[in-house]
């Protein structure tokens, strides 16, 4: 079974959704291939952040900074229930294109999940700038990628088209928000739904893969014919 997950590292619900998907897979004891796909919530975000998170939220929703901070508390509380301790005061709302490009590189070297997990942690817990090459390099090397290869990759434009292709694919599938989970290209879940929602999809797919015998007649088996 394969699950494709469109998400962005600047999306707090994407990390929550990742955790819930992982919990559902563990609960169901399934062999599932999970592939993260690129999606930018704000492709025009500046390379060098000029505003803090609360300033951006206040401007977007027409509220005060304090109201913006209070708006974020519900997300923080939800994340904590999944064992994620968000530090929203420290978040640097950076452009995430380079982080997605690094994910593509990690995917080709079998380190996608480790890098994705570290990028989410860096953004929401450590207050790190995901558009900083030094931070991206450290994350990649700590995930097990060769330092020389990472350095050369980050200095290039390699795999930029892969990011754009996955974003275009999201548009073709009608993805309007993230996280967005696609199961075997047959079913989808939009948003960070409860663990039970993922388990229901897994159950449905398993049932469809089970051969239903609708008639039985004379046959031969390993113990003889009857």
Characterise the protein shown here.
- There is one protein chain.
- The protein has helices at residues 12-28, 53-61, 65-81, 97-108, 112-124, 133-142, 147-154, 160-173, 195-209; strands at residues 2-7, 33-38, 180-183, 187-190, 220-221, 224-225.
- The strands form 2 sheets. A 4-stranded mixed sheet has the order 2-1-3-4. The protein has a two-stranded antiparallel sheet with strand order 5-6.
- Helices cover 51% and strands 11% of the residues.
- With 226 residues, it is α+β, with helices and mostly antiparallel strands.
- Helix 1 packs across helix 9 (195-209).
- The longest helix has 17 residues, at 12-28.
In brief:
This protein is of the alpha+beta class. The chain has 9 helices and 6 strands; from the N terminus they run E-H-E-H-H-H-H-H-H-H-E-E-H-E-E.
How is the secondary structure organized here?
Layout (H helix, E strand, L loop, with lengths): L1 E6 L4 H17 L4 E6 L14 H9 L3 H17 L15 H12 L3 H13 L8 H10 L4 H8 L5 H14 L6 E4 L3 E4 L4 H15 L10 E2 L2 E2 L1
Parallel strand pairs: 1-2
Antiparallel strand pairs: 1-3, 3-4, 5-6
Helix pairs in contact: 1-9, 2-3, 4-5, 6-7
């Amino acid at each position: 079974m394969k699950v494709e997950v469109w998400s962005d590292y600047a999306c707090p619900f994407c990390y929550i959704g990742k955790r819930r998907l992982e919990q559902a897979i563990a609960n169901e004891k399934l062999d599932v291939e999970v592939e993260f796909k690129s999606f930018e919530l704000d492709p025009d975000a500046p390379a060098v952040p000029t505003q803090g998170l609360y300033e951006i939220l206040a401007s977007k929703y027409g509220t005060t900074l304090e109201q913006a901070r209070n708006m974020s508390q519900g997300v923080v509380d939800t994340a904590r229930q999944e064992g994620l301790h968000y530090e929203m005061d420290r978040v640097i709302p950076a452009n995430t294109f380079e982080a997605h490009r690094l994910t593509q590189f990690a995917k080709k070297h079998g380190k996608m999940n480790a890098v994705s997990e570290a990028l989410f942690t860096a953004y929401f817990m450590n207050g790190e700038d995901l558009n900083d090459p030094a931070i991206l390099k450290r994350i990649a090397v700590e995930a097990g990628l060769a330092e020389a290869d990472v350095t050369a990759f980050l200095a290039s434009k390699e795999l930029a088209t892969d990011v754009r292709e996955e974003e275009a694919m999201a548009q073709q599938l009608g993805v309007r928000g993230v996280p967005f989970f696609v199961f075997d290209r047959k079913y989808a879940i939009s948003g960070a739904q409860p663990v039970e929602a993922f388990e229901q999809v897994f159950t449905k797919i398993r049932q469809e893969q089970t051969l239903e015998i609708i008639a039985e007649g004379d046959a031969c088996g390993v113990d003889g014919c009857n």
